[in-house]
Amino acid sequence: TREMLCLMHKNLGKIVRHETIFHALYGRYDEIERAQPQTIKVYVSLIRKELVNHTIVTHPGIGYQLIPRIR
């Protein structure tokens, strides 16, 4: 989950596509094919629980977006 959070933080405010996340987490294409799509959803859920100053927005069919939380 740390790799995913770092990737999203580097792209703060931008939508990070599912494919980009899979590539960052699993690297090689053959490993991506074996990866379960639910894995990313679980990681996002775990990261959301830990975030204080940011939130993750889901863009169905596209990816996820890390944005600063409005107080």
Would you kindly provide a written description of the structure presented here, covering whatever features stand out?
The N and C termini lie far apart (25 Å). With 71 residues, this protein is an alpha+beta fold. The chain has helices spanning 2-10, 18-26, 29-34, 37-50, and strands spanning 15-17, 54-59, 63-68. It has a 3-stranded antiparallel sheet with strand order 1-3-2. The radius of gyration is 12 Å and the shape is globular. The chain has 4 helices and 3 strands, in the order αβαααββ.
Percent in helix: 40-55%
Shape: globular
- The number of helices is 4
Main β-sheet: number of strands, strand sense, barrel status? 3 strands, antiparallel
* Unreliable parts: none
Oligomer: single chain
Distance between the termini: 25 Å
Would you list the SSEs in sequence order as H and E?
HEHHHEE
Mean pLDDT: 86
Total strand segments = 3
- Strand order of the biggest β-sheet: 1-3-2
Give the structural class: alpha+beta
Using only CA atoms, what is the Rg? 12 Å
- Beta-strand residue fraction: 15-25%
Q: What's the arrangement of secondary structure elements?
A:
Layout lengths: L1 H9 L4 E3 H9 L2 H6 L2 H14 L3 E6 L3 E6 L3
Gist of the model:
The chain is of the alpha+beta class and 71 residues long. The chain has 4 helices and 3 strands; from the N terminus they run αβαααββ.
